[in-house]
Amino acid sequence: MAESDFQRDTAVRRDGDGWTADLQPRWNVGNNPNGGYLLAIAVRAMGEEAGRPDPVTVTAHYLSPPADGPVVIRTQIVKPGRTFVTVMAEVVQGDRERVRVMGAFGDLAERQGPTRVSARPPDIPPPDQCVGLAHLTRQAGRPIPEVMNRFDIRLPADSPWGRPGEGDPLEITGWIRFRDGTQPSALSAVAFADAFPPTLLGSVAAGWVPTIELTVHVRGRPAPGWLLGTFRTRVLVDGLLEEDGELWDSQGRPIALSRQLAMVLSR
Amino acid sequence: MAESDFQRDTAVRRDGDGWTADLQPRWNVGNNPNGGYLLAIAVRAMGEEAGRPDPVTVTAHYLSPPADGPVVIRTQIVKPGRTFVTVMAEVVQGDRERVRVMGAFGDLAERQGPTRVSARPPDIPPPDQCVGLAHLTRQAGRPIPEVMNRFDIRLPADSPWGRPGEGDPLEITGWIRFRDGTQPSALSAVAFADAFPPTLLGSVAAGWVPTIELTVHVRGRPAPGWLLGTFRTRVLVDGLLEEDGELWDSQGRPIALSRQLAMVLSR
For the complex shown, is ipTM > 0.95? Predict the structure, then answer.
């Protein structure tokens, strides 16, 4: 099997009472690592610390963007438990905390209880009838952030992203997979939840849309293949907005619900 | 002005390097304080510590339900900032941590930036044409938790709550205010986000639906009067579910978006 960029670049090593990792510039947006990549690294250390495979709910507060290079991840077991282990993590670079994360980790394969899903995956054409995000980005004359080369993201040719109608939510819907062929996992769902470009890009003037807080609920382990993601903003008020995301796997099962609070900054 | 139950019962006092509060049994569900009430107390201490009026995004992990009586709230400034101050809090009772909270605090009145709201408040009859939740609960032969007496919650007479149609989300929509006439605030929006009964009650067999994690984004300070709340569950899988909430004020403005991850337990 080919080595996986995502597995290699999110590797964490135990170091004293914490963990270390190396942020790789190939996941950058401009000079800073993408938030979903950063969160995946923290979540990997937290999951190791918890001894549980699945990040059932994780919340990151982004404090100060790191550069690529080494980071230390200090983890604390907040509460050991039979069902869930609650863990906190501080991601530190150069004596400055960059991200604070809280999460509950468990084993989704062990869960038992009622199932009732009324949500449905978005109905878009299959990936081979969609258009590459990189192509659309180039067409729009926008720079392609390095992280975009790690993902294969495809949108419908008539995607309303960037040109929503009156009263429509700001929305982006498309297929996503790793470009190197890595199959999706619960951990990669955390990264995918922050891999699409901002919902408001092209619709609302913004230089940068930094994430204040991102919460991801991983609800299932994805089947191999493409994931289908949809991200929607319905409430942009005074420059603050939510992005509500859903990820569905190739079997049509819901894999993750995400919500982030972000802020519009002008250039 | 009459003394407010909510103001009095969420009071926090500085005590050494932390805060103390007294959990009042009038906010109980059974023998434990309601999660929104608990979160409001933590948020009040965190806001005082931050020196900022508004809980812009707060996330609580519920670790172990406390009883009524004294709690200690240990707060830590994670990151001071111009725009937002990030704070962590541990709510401790009897040497055991009960809730861990992370939040970013700011001043919503100072925010500037674009506004674009495509979400709309739910369309239900006015409060005086709705039915009291306490009345409906009594009619269904269910016990009325003590906390329900603190709120005046009214649902449409034909509310689908408890009997959704095939393929419908599990949903509860209704008006809410404090029963003692206290006007709503950004802080009370945090409590209101966990004041409605579970979306799945009556539809899915459940003895108890404990919250694992609750995140509330407060997006505006509410105008006086009723708030309109709607809470929806679209993905219940193996006993894990989200509850997505929206709160709207009497001027039709979006006040808060909430999401919790909860778990179905049988009695």
Answer: yes
